[in-house]
Amino acid sequence: MDPNREARALAERLPLGRLAALLGGSLVCPTDDGYNEARRVWNGMINEYPAAIAYCQTVEDVLGCVEFARDHDLDVTVRSGGHSVSGASVVSGGLVIDCSRMEWVRVDPDERTARVGPGATWGTVDRATQSFGLATPGGVYTDTGVAGLTLGGGTGYLSPKHGFTADNLRSIDVVTGRGQYVTADPTQHEDLFWAARGGGSVGVVTAFEFDLHPLDHDLLYFESWLAVDDAPDALREYRRYQRNAPDESCVFPYFTSVPVTDEFPADRHGDAAFVLAGVYAGDPDTGRRELEPFRDRPAAFAGSTDAMSYTELQSLSDEDFPDGRLYYWKSVPVADLTDEAIAELQVAADRAPSPRSTIVVWPMHGAVERPPDIAGPVAGRDAAAVVNVEAAWDDPAATPANVEWVRETCGRFRDLGATAGTLPNFAGGREPDADDVYSGHAERLRAIRDRYDPDGIFEYERA
């Protein structure tokens, strides 16, 4: 029986009318007209068939859903923004607790904190916090959900200055797998709070509280586009720079293909390219001087340097990741950006089966390598950089080639001297287990999950 038929058969056996009556929101079942749209997520590679999708509006809705799942032995996933690359927010034959309608942000400018609903996106948060000249590290795509990014660690342009998104988490309100509604912070349910700082699902988080940081000025953003043959020398220069890079600096070289737009020479359209790109989170004029060796390259065939607001910066990549495209991403934290690793980056870029794919070298310096007192389970803080291998394509027939390219490329970097673990948000599909992702923190994380979800109703990395 295929997943679609299995979902329909299960839905017929369940008393879903009882669940629908409990909800202030709405319930979508496999026989409903809106089911096919409701089950879809941002990544077009994901094709799951839930038994039901519950749109929650209140904590009481969430409590009712968890109780129903416990009573009927249903697997549960939590969906907020729906931007999990691995598709972790939707499951065949289970219950999707959708929190997207719980979208709210409350900023306290005096305390420099923000309380955020689980349905909020980073665009919503950034607009609210920037109205007070404040910010916290978020993703680099405005439609990304706050919940998924935070619970998976979270990196962004402000991470060298202020750490992972999860490092800035002050507390959570959460409905656990036991059906209990608790607050976790450094003084209560400390183990659950530790797990929430990058450990993936810890239940259904119904509110996040973040530390905010002053950011009342423009930020410098630059790009310098080079031929791939120029990459080795530029990456060696980048390697030297990163050893003492200031916290304000977030330089992230990447390989991609030249877009077919008027911004680039016509004779370069579609060619493989190497891009030096970065953000300076301090004074823009200081940033121009600090980043001049990267942004002013004589061999560049295109480039730009602009000072812009944080909200404008955060939206720059929105058009590059359209809804419904097929994506498969994995990351490898590398101990050092050696000459061998630099050579492998160029080889891997040449082998990419899709012109829409990228390989990004993301910096891991500054606040990221200075963990807070409650650091959470994210591994790889001691890496020199993280290599994000990001396949993106449109033809479903090309899926095997793109997935294999990502896996093979990451395997080669593992062989070249990777640090343990990986960034949870870039773990790659659902195949990694907790040991692969969290390394030495995996056993502690499993124990916490067992304590708060003894019946295992929430979907996790495989034990």
Low-pLDDT runs: none
Number of H- or I-type helical stretches: 16
By DSSP, the count of extended strands is 19
Mean pLDDT: 94
Share of β-strand residues:
15-25%
Give the biggest beta sheet: 8 strands, antiparallel
What spatial form do the alpha-carbon principal axes imply? globular
Q: Specify the structural class.
A: alpha+beta
In whole angstroms, the N-to-C terminal distance is 27 Å
Search tags:
single chain, 463 residues, alpha+beta, 5-stranded antiparallel beta sheet
What does this structure look like?
The protein is 29% helix and 22% strand. With 463 residues, it is α+β, with helices and mostly antiparallel strands. Strands 12, 13, 14, 15, 16, 17, 18 and 19 form an 8-stranded antiparallel sheet that branches. The longest helix is centred in the last third of the chain and has 17 residues, at 399-415. The chain is globular. The two termini are 27 Å apart. The relative contact order is 0.13. The model has no long low-confidence stretch (mean pLDDT 94).
List the helices and strands and how they pair.
Elements lengths: L2 H11 L2 H7 L3 E3 L6 H4 L13 E4 L3 H13 L4 E4 L15 E4 L6 E4 L4 E4 L5 H9 L3 E2 L10 H6 L7 H4 L6 E7 L5 E4 L5 H7 L7 E8 L1 E2 L4 E9 L3 H12 L6 E3 L2 E4 L14 E9 L3 H7 L1 H4 L6 E7 L1 H5 L11 E9 L4 H13 L6 E6 L21 E9 L5 H17 L18 H5 L3 H11 L11
Parallel strand pairs: 2-4, 3-4
Antiparallel strand pairs: 1-2, 5-6, 6-10, 7-11, 8-9, 8-10, 12-15, 12-16, 13-15, 14-15, 14-18, 17-19, 18-19
Please give a quick description of this structure.
This protein is an alpha+beta fold.
